[in-house]
Specification:
Number of domains: 2
Helix content: 25-40%
Radius of gyration: 23 Å
Number of strands: 17
CATH topology of the largest domain: Aminopeptidase
CATH class of the largest domain: Alpha Beta
């Protein structure tokens, strides 16, 4: 009997060891995918992208981005984040409806293909742009979404890696940039305590871009696995859980559940739940996710959306079928942000506000005479504008409901808590 129990114990131990998480595709020197047997069809014109079962050439990609800005000038504008080592453009579109002077809108950011050979997200982001723009004025839900916030989408963060063999094909794409640098290992690391290495050109452009905006929620799309990966990447969840870990788990569960309405087998190759804390999967340094969360107080999620880094062209519509509702739902998660999110200490006013929290009023000292400041609720609507004629400034909040408010001036903000 004891021998039988011992054998069962050994068997259980062996099964547990074999059930470890699938290795993270960007956690070790990767082996390039073999594309010889895959049908990779390229679109050499915008019209050839109509069925969304092709990858665009570089010129087609640029033309698509330019055409959207031309077709929808009232709600779409084209940004150049920067250029790659080889001079290719790193582009983003800004999609925003009614631009009202008295509304401070939250900003959302999608970015994809920081690893050049992980291109499923590249096409998903292009199709998402097209969907949001074509639906404006036709879908009440998506019209409200575009009116409510600024939505920024960067489909291709590493164009040199994606078009390594030339602008005409994604065959031969590599994860690295043209200098053979992994862009998802060379963002400033907030936790290592080691001086930052030289920042690659593409990453410096991205750092400058996100620093010029105030993104509150974002996601970075990858391939090579199927799992939602929430911060931190630098620690396991037992070592240092993210302060909003419970919120992240709820968001990830909603994303996974939405995708599995289309395919019950989707997002299961790493964890059965479809999501994991990054460090529990594999600890990595210098990743963009931790950089965004720590330095910009922007809640960023890493979305690993396809087991194959480069899926056959004819499968791209299938992945859109899995993902499109969840990708739109994730933008709407900006409405569920925890109250602690969205305003970093480095962005706060050079002023003292007290008492804070408050039940009735606050006193604001340190604002220069002649300046103006405005109070917003968390939905971004301006509640009042105040001129600083004499210091200190006193604000009466008695008529406002309990909640979090933002006092903004000169592009910076601080939170006020009303009990």
């Amino acid at each position: 009997m004891k021998q039988h129990l011992l054998l069962l114990t050994l068997l259980a131990t062996t099964l547990a060891a074999s059930a470890q998480l699938k290795p993270r595709p960007d956690a070790f020197p990767p082996i390039a995918e073999t594309l010889a047997t895959k049908a990779i069809t390229m679109a050499s014109s915008v019209d050839e992208m109509a069925s969304w079962d092709r990858y665009p050439t570089y010129e087609t990609y640029v033309a698509m981005m330019q055409r959207w800005a031309e077709q929808y000038p009232e709600i779409c504008s084209l940004d150049t984040i920067g250029t790659s080592v080889q001079g290719r453009l790193i582009l983003a579109v800004q999609i925003e409806g009614q631009r009202l002077a008295d509304v401070y809108k939250p900003q959302f950011f999608y970015s994809s293909t920081i690893h050049g050979d992980e291109v499923t997200g590249y096409v998903m982001m292009l199709r998402l742009i097209d969907t949001l723009l074509a639906s404006y004025g036709n879908s009440p839900r998506l019209t409200a979404l575009v009116d409510e916030m600024g939505i920024y989408i960067n489909p291709l963060a590493n164009p040199d890696g994606t078009y390594r063999r030339g602008n005409h094909t994604v065959r031969g794409a590599i994860r690295y940039n043209a200098d053979t640098v992994d862009l998802n290992r060379t963002f400033p690391d907030p936790f290592s305590g080691v001086a930052a290495k030289a920042v690659p050109q593409e990453n410096q452009a991205m750092i400058d871009y996100v620093s010029a905006h105030r993104f509150r929620l974002s996601a970075n799309l990858h391939g090579g696995a199927e799992v939602m990966n929430y911060p931190w990447d630098s620690f396991t969840s037992t070592m240092r859980p993210h302060p909003e870990a419970e919120w992240w788990q709820e968001v990830c569960k909603r994303f996974v559940d939405t995708c599995r309405l289309q395919s019950r087998s989707y997002l299961r190759d790493v964890t059965e739940s479809g999501y994991t804390a990054g460090g529990d999967w594999y600890i990595i340094p210098g990743g963009r996710q931790d950089y965004m969360n720590h330095y910009h107080n922007c809640l960023e999620l890493t979305m690993e959306i396809s087991t194959a880094k480069t899926v056959p062209s004819e499968q791209l519509p299938t992945y859109w079928h899995y993902l499109n509702a969840a990708l739109i739902n994730y933008i709407e998660e900006i409405r569920t942000l925890p109250e602690s999110a969205g305003i970093a200490e480095s962005e706060c006013l050079a002023a003292k506000i007290y008492p804070n929290p408050t039940c009735s009023h606050v006193i604001v000292s340190g604002l220069p005479a002649g300046s103006t400041t405005a109070l917003y609720n968390m939905a971004g609507h301006r509640l009042g504008t105040y001129s600083v004629e004499t210091a200190p400034l006193q604000l009466d909040l008695q008529s406002l409901p309990q909640g979090i408010y933002l006092l903004r001036t000169a592009g910076t903000a601080v939170k006020i808590v009303k009990h």
